[in-house]
Design goal:
- The protein has about 750 residues and is α+β, with helices and mostly antiparallel strands.
- Among the domains are: about 180 residues, Aldehyde Oxidoreductase, domain 4; about 200 residues, Aldehyde oxidase/xanthine dehydrogenase, molybdopterin binding domain (Aldehyde Oxidoreductase, domain 4).
- Helices cover about 25% and strands about 25% of the residues.
- Strand 16 and strand 17 form a beta hairpin.
- The longest helix has 25 residues.
- The chain binds dioxothiomolybdenum(VI) ion.
- Dioxothiomolybdenum(VI) ion (MOS) binds next to loops.
Length: about 750
């Protein structure tokens, strides 16, 4: 795995947790800055000299070409400094025809007269003020020649073909046993189709950039989930060496998968800053965020379950059809998790995708699981009812002993414990399995549950730790914190590892000049970045211990370095001790720095490693209006060692709340005339507010996944949403008997289902 334990084979400060900082509900490191409004987000960063402001102009057709651009009025408008379109934008690195996710590639802006989707950026106006830039942008006249377009997923889904994503994504059909025969022979069957809509991330902070040049070196603050990959991709776009580009993202107001890469804001701010010789800021508007970044594509999912009367699955299938943009290959992989979840001898999973003239499809909040559990985990509820078996019991009866498709042993799997503890805490035994039996005033009340699963990944990462003459530890890492708690957990790992109070730790992240880390996404951040931090901490311990034992002025002089302990800002060997700050000030006054690295263990592929959970939801349904309220939600999760019970809980409850909106309110409607999104602001795109969410609690089981990494941690960033919406849908059915398979489950659909 890593050399982290070579030096102190018997000691792992995170596991020993002597100071009790690991697992504690520590407040957010950057919390005070955020709640006082003083954390500078990318657009708010103060550049070295006054900035100019860019406003982008977006296409108003779904497919075709730009016939003419008339920029004369814009160019003559007060304060306008430049107007660029494909006709005059500086040359950039070409976008590859088909790219793979793991190679940062050029993402040029305003490249040609072709329009591939509504909302594609076609021009930018830069002016001395934001208002003048906006006024100038309104004066750019773009004439289009529209081609015939295909934007309606449900009208075109029959044209779907096998995904053209790289084979390692494993999105193609996979069969085990003989699914058709197994399904046909099953005495009890479910065969239904679910639909999930296109969804947008709706981060609070839109994508934005502040860029300036010093000579041939670019500094750009932008809102992204990863710095190093974007440094490389931006350099390739600008056709300059990566070392001439510094990407910073100190604070990010939400990512959710939509900020893995930069967009035109970053490219155009960088290019315009160079052309104008002054800093430039460019931001997306909310409407531009909806169209011009990525979204989760709509899906149609067919689930087929075959079972014996005693509830053993004999046939299991989830087939997903989805869409992506003309030039991409992203495929919402809603069927993948099924391969790891339940036992069944005959299995079939796979995906097909249709290319449409819609904005670019991509990752959004637990891509795959978030959408896929909305079908499978409801189908399991339907099967339980048909069999007359409790939904928890049905899932327990289909619990596999090893990974159902690869046969690999589980690193640890506590799904059953999650379900059992959740059932007990929630009062599941009080549920009446017959729908429509419980009334509370005007509300019909029902309970529902669903299982949760999400993968566990570790990406290579590095970090540096420095101790200075004040005994302060500074963590430096090209990591990001997209609101998840990365700053805080890195501080906790440093404090526990070096035995200093949390107040004596500084964390610097979000800068491509810092030791590279994978950033935030796929709930891999804490495990990857944190493991590298532990390694750096251990290496710094070693350096400090050797410093003490080699320093004749230290009370620890001559003692075995391997026996030095670190606690309360004091280094000691048995009863010989001194303050860490005193040692460093005397023996290494310029401070001491150590690096750490982590990469996946050689045997990491030998295990089926996932995070698990169980959701329990109580809803009220008003059968006159069709209104649904979530009254109580409980999630019980098993996700390895938890570093911070507060930030982890926030991640999990946040995910559960997204599950509620996936079930009840969220989704973009496509306007078939323009290929635009009809609801394109936060008034029309319904995400929950405080009043929409009743009681919500997330409980984390004690767990250590010793196969995952030296700390035994996994991730919680996306687990909470997996299954949450299905539990809501199941609760609605239990409340009133309405089974709506077309998300979101809006009041009109409930009333229609009730007849
Ligand atoms: Mo995520 S949606 O894998 O950043």
């Amino acid at each position: 795995m890593t050399s982290v334990l070579e030096w102190e084979a018997t000691s792992n400060p995170v596991k020993e947790n002597r100071a009790g900082i690991i697992g504690k509900a520590v407040d957010r490191y950057e919390g005070p800055l955020k709640v006082t409004g003083t954390a500078p987000y990318a657009y708010e960063v103060t550049p070295p000299s006054p900035a100019a402001y860019g406003v982008m102009v977006s296409a108003t057709i779904a497919r075709g070409r730009i016939a003419a651009i008339d920029a004369a009025a814009a160019e003559a408008s007060p304060g306008v400094l430049l107007v660029w379109s494909h006709e005059n934008v500086p040359e950039q690195g070409p976008r590859p025809p088909l790219y793979d996710f793991f190679t940062p590639f050029p993402r040029p802006a305003l490249q040609s007269d072709r329009v591939y989707f509504f909302g594609q950026q076609v021009a930018v106006v830069v002016a001395d003020t934001l208002e003048n830039a906006q006024a100038g942008a309104d004066l750019v006249k773009v004439t289009y020649e529209a081609d015939s377009q295909a934007v309606d997923f449900h009208a075109h889904r029959h044209e779907a073909t096998e995904p053209d994503s790289p084979p390692e994504f494993q999105l193609g059909n996979r069969e085990m046993g003989d699914f058709a025969a197994g399904f046909a022979a099953a005495p009890v069957r479910i065969d239904d189709v679910w639909r999930t809509p296109l969804q947008n991330h709706c981060q609070m902070e839109p994508c934005a950039a502040t860029a300036w040049w010093e000579g041939d070196h670019l500094t750009v603050h932008c809102s992204v989930q990863t710095v190093r990959r974007n440094q490389i991709a931006l350099a390739a776009t600008l056709q300059i060496p990566p070392e001439n580009v510094r990407v910073l993202t100190r604070y990010v107001g939400g990512g959710f998968g939509g900020k893995s890469a930069f967009y035109e804001d970053t490219v155009l701010a960088s290019l315009a800053a160079r052309a104008l010789g002054r800093p430039v800021k460019v931001a997306f508007s909310r409407q531009q965020m909806m169209h011009g970044t990525i979204h989760r594509p709509a899906t149609e999912q067919r689930v087929r379950l075959g079972a014996t009367p005693d509830g053993r699955l004999t046939a299991l299938s989830l087939m997903t059809t989805t869409h992506c943009d003309r030039r991409g290959f992203f495929t919402e992989f809603s069927s993948l998790f099924v391969r790891n979840l339940y036992a069944a001898p005959n299995r079939l999973t796979g995906h097909s995708v249709v290319k449409l003239d819609l904005p670019v499809a991509g990752a959004l909040r637990a891509p795959g699981e978030a959408s896929g559990t909305l079908s499978l985990e409801v189908a399991m509820d339907e099967l339980a009812e048909k069999l007359g078996i409790d939904p928890v019991e049905l899932r327990i009866r289909n619990e596999p002993e090893a990974d159902p498709e690869t046969g690999k042993p589980f690193s640890i799997r506590q799904l059953v414990r999650c379900m059992r503890e959740g059932a007990q805490l929630f009062g599941w035994d009080k549920r009446n399995p017959k729908p429509g039996q419980v009334r509370d005033g005007r509300w019909m009340v029902g309970l529902g549950m669903a299982a949760a699963i999400r993968g566990n990944i570790l990406f290579p990462a590095s970090a540096s730790f420095t101790v200075d003459a004040d005994g302060v530890i500074t963590v430096r890492q090209g990591m990001t914190d997209i609101g998840t708690g990365a700053y805080t957990v890195l501080a906790q790992i440093a404090a526990e590892t070096l035995g200093v109070p949390l107040g004596d730790v500084r964390v610097e992240i979000g800068d491509s000049e810092l030791p590279p880390a994978p950033g935030s996404g796929g709930q891999f951040g804490a495990a990857s970045a944190g493991s590298a931090a532990l390694a750096a901490g251990m290496n710094l311990r070693k350096a400090i211990a050797e410093l003490a034992s080699n320093d004749p002025a230290s009370p620890l002089f001559g003692g075995p370095a391997g026996q030095v302990t670190f606690q309360d800002g004091v280094v000691a060997i048995a009863n010989r001790s001194e303050r860490l700050a005193d040692l460093v000030r005397r023996a290494a006054p310029d401070g001491l720095t150590a690096m750490g690295e982590v990469s996946p263990a050689a045997d990491s592929g030998d295990w089926s490693s996932h995070t698990y959970g169980a959701h329990y939801v109580e809803v009220g349904v008003d059968t006159v209006t069709g209104e649904v309220r979530t009254r109580r939600m409980l999630g019980v999760f098993a996700a390895g060692r938890i570093i911070n019970r507060k930030t982890a809980r926030s991640q999990l409850t946040g995910g559960m709340i997204w599950g509620v909106s996936s079930a009840l309110t969220e989704g973009n409607l496509v306007d078939p005339r323009y290929g635009s999104l009809i609801n394109q602001d936060l008034a029309g795109y319904m995400v929950p507010v405080q009043a929409d969410i009743g009681e919500v609690e997330a409980i984390m089981l004690d767990e250590v996944d010793d196969k995952a990494n030296p700390m035994g941690i996994k991730g919680v960033g996306e687990l909470g949403i997996s299954g949450a919406g299905a539990a809501v849908a199941n609760a609605i059915y239990n409340a009133c008997g309405a089974r709506v398979r077309d998300y979101p489950i809006t009041p009109d659909k409930i009333l229609a289902a009730l007849g």
